[in-house]
Amino acid sequence: MSSSSELGAWLLPIDQTTAVAIGRYELKYIEYVKASVRLPGLPSYCEQGFLWRNRFVPALDIHELVSHRRSRPTDEERLAAIIAYENSAGEVDMGAIFLRGIPRLLPVRPDQSVAVAELETSWQLLAHAAFEDQSTRYPVLDLRALFDRTPADLLAMH
Amino acid sequence: MSMTDVLAGESPSLAPPATAAPERVRLDGGEFGLLLPAADVVTLMPGNRLSAPTDTASSLAAQSCGYLEYGQQRYPVFCLNKALQLQSRLEPCHQVLVLLRHQQQGFALACRSLTKLETQDYPVYPVPRSMSSRKQPFSRFALIGEVALGLSSAADLLKLLQVRGVQVREQNSHALQGAG
Question: What is the ipTM of this complex?
Fold first, then answer.
């Protein structure tokens, strides 16, 4: 396996013009979610989750989190990336990110790396790395920071 | 169950399960749902039993929808929206007032309906960290018919009210000896 393939990243479209990246081994499945359930008392970006293979998977709408704008309310089928991350207890846990398009695997070279501080402010606290491809900068999401924090703790960072 | 779980001289078959789940009822809050221990429910009343706050200057009056009278006592009535924030008026769908008790504290919650569960056999999940909030009166939820219902109690709801800045005063001990 070449070093370039080892550094591959998945680009996840979260709205019509924006994509975020996660490590190539962090994306486990892509699923159409037919029935999500909502819990009360939460910001809309994190109020949904769904049953998948007999486990409850929390889902995040990253576009809503960053834009502070609510996506169209929908009970329609939604595409989701099911991801795995290591939680603070050192266990592998799962979460989901709602998508607006099909993810794309992109080879990334070390010289494409850019400093997180060069990202837009709203992305700096959600990303633990970043890279540039064809003049577009992509944040690489810090999945533990997103899924292993309460919404209050996450929003307090902003 | 280990032998130490059984009281001396008691038949194992008569001993209650070590972790007997309380019988629960389903509270349909309109935009949210909870499962509450049936033992926490004192009584139900129609929404038209709600009386307007008398002391409008008090902080409790500002946070409640009013009060109801039961057993010669007055109990504050609260209404929660989807964000579990206190509302000063009943939602149109809230036609039932559920009087709840925890120890000597009583209060009512407005809801669409309160129904007995047909089954006590439902899957329960812990609330994931990314979906948890101290402003939720539950840390686990059940999935029944693709609807999430928080496993809550009168004590949990009192904690939520406290987080929202409400103090529910204690009542006379006889006042809450209702239908239970």
Answer: 0.90
